[in-house]
Queue: 2 jobs
Job 1
Amino acid sequence: MSGKSAREERRDERLQAESQGEQQDRRKRLLQIGAGAIFIAVVVVAVLIVISAGNSGSGGDTNLEDVGLVKEKLNGIPQSGLLLGDPRATVTLYEFGDLQCPVCKAFSEQIVPEVIESQVRTGEAKIEFRNFTIISQESIPAGAAAIAAGKQGKGWNYLELFYRNQGKEASGYVTDEFLEEIAKGAGVPDIAKWQKDRESKQVVEEVEATTKEAERLGFTGTPSFAVEGPASKGKETLGTPGEAGAIEEAIEEAS
């Protein structure tokens, strides 16, 4: 009897030790998740700070800023329509945005550039901008103007330059004069053709179609991202990642 009791005692001790180990592992996982949540919160605050700083300066007028910077940033990367990168790249990152959106502006300056340099410029992926016009009616002609610029190989120049000269949302700054000045600054070679294209029914319908696509994908805010590649199941939605690393990881997983 005493031998059996000893064995049972040892078994109980072993089970207790294993249970304690499992609890420690669980606590460790919870701490990791908690740390991740804190990190995301910090990122969100940082983005809001960037937005606040961006809105405190000038914008929404024809005295354009960062024309040379945008040109330098995109130099050497192929463009077709609103697609940036090697068209043969097997992974496509989709960005659904509104040109009036201040958070989109923050992403264009702080997060997307990292992805462009690390994976788009290198040919690992390409990125395509699609209009998701949710701010106001002014977003529609802004989006159409970008598409028209894309028809002349300057779509991403237009997007980036617009963001860097963005005014206060729904304030009426998106005028014909402003849009044309952005086109000139972006290097659109044929302004007359651009004017005609941006007002065409086909281009306006494209803006409306991509907005509906974003809604079908379940997006409710901008910017929202999706990725598609050989290892993905169609367009896989990413929502609004808080850091470039999350987007880069999604691209790698879709490869």
Job 2
Amino acid sequence: MVLITGGARRVGAEIARSLHGAGANLLIHYRSSAAAAESLLGDLNRIRAGSAAIRCADLLDPKTPDSLVAATLAEFGRLDILINNASTFYPTAVGEITLSHWDDLMGSNLKAPLFLAQAAAASLRLRGGLILNIVDIHALRPLKQHPVYSVAKAGLVMLTKSLARELGPEVRVNGIAPGPVLWPDRTIDASLKEEIIAKTALKRHGTPADIARTALFLATAAPFITGQIIAVDGGRSV
């Protein structure tokens, strides 16, 4: 049984489909992507009836972590895997950063994963479970014009390692750091895309399926891996 945040679209939806294909039931959290969530829900339940549920929630609401875990247990009776995938991402140039930017970016990328992990810990311990955090290669190499986002993801790297120490031996905690696998929703200049791809060792961008395959590996075939961040970036980080 999997609880995934931000699972209605993009990388989150691909992870959800991959784990569902391996037999998992899922509670899929979303905030504003209602149409995408309903569509994904229909697809998954047509494949296997009663295997998926969705919940709308604001991760910045302090009640949300407990309510999402409670909804998962009420729906499926257990929790094996928590995937902290939801993230806000946008530039914050120095001189223009506001407290709202800080609260939003730190909240979705660091605060919510911490309190979701805390809310889920007891249930995960019972199942010998897994927490999987979707990080970013820019946690270690800051992205220009994105200092708050980069700091938040750097914090998520340390949270991943800290939780692995705190929750072991019952619970494994790992992270995936995607590189250029999916462009942001906002328009990206073609020359910038080419520049980013040129900096990868494989000279190409990846796909959400590359992240989903890694998530599936960590969920099903990596019982002796914890506290690790796996870069899935075509060699961008080297």
